[in-house]
Amino acid sequence: MRITIRHSLARLAFAVAAIVLIAPNAQAVESEGETRGTGDPPEVSPVAGLAIHNGKLIDLAKDWGGATTCIVVPDTLTLAECFDSDAERDARLAELGLEDRFAEAAAPDGADFAFASCSSYLKLYDNYYYGGASLWLSTRGTWTNLSVYGFNQRASSYKVGGCSTYMADYSNGGGAWISTSLTQAWDVDAVISGSWNNDISSVYIL
Fold this sequence. Notes:
Blueprint: E1 2-3, H1 5-17, E2 27-31, E3 34-38, E4 50-53, E5 56-59, E6 69-72, E7 80-83, H2 86-95, H3 111-117, E8 122-125, E9 134-137, E10 143-145, E11 157-159, E12 165-168, E13 175-177, E14 188-189, E15 202-205
Parallel strand pairs: 4-7, 6-9
Antiparallel strand pairs: 1-5, 2-3, 3-13, 4-5, 6-7, 8-9, 8-11, 10-15, 11-14, 12-15
């Protein structure tokens, strides 16, 4: 359900004032070749899941309001931003000076480049072969529950950016994890196979 920014300022002001940080404490254990995670709830802001789309405020957990792609850049934008096309998204990222986060090829040698490029996005796609709606995330060092962004158990393909990533079956890193050998920096999977298709509920970007 869409609500205008004007009517949502009070909610947003309250949310920002009420931010509560809960430090994650995820732990991984190996079980029959699968990585499983348990941990406390992730660091979450009350404004997480709210996004700007066509000048209006939407709650991604409820409805994308016709948007086809969304970006979450907490170090640059207070709220997520969503767009009607990839071209609109790319133009906005260029406007913000975030072209470096587009990188999808293997990083060249050099620790400085590797460190800088680790801000690049984890890209999740609703369909195989990177099609359909997409959610681009750059939130690092905490579990991100995809339900917050209306993307719970929707991913059918992905592209990992410059930072290795954990992908878990349940929220907060719980349950089984996709093999970490498949989610290293710059890994891609055009067809998430088997039971993992439409089954990722949380991600952790290192």
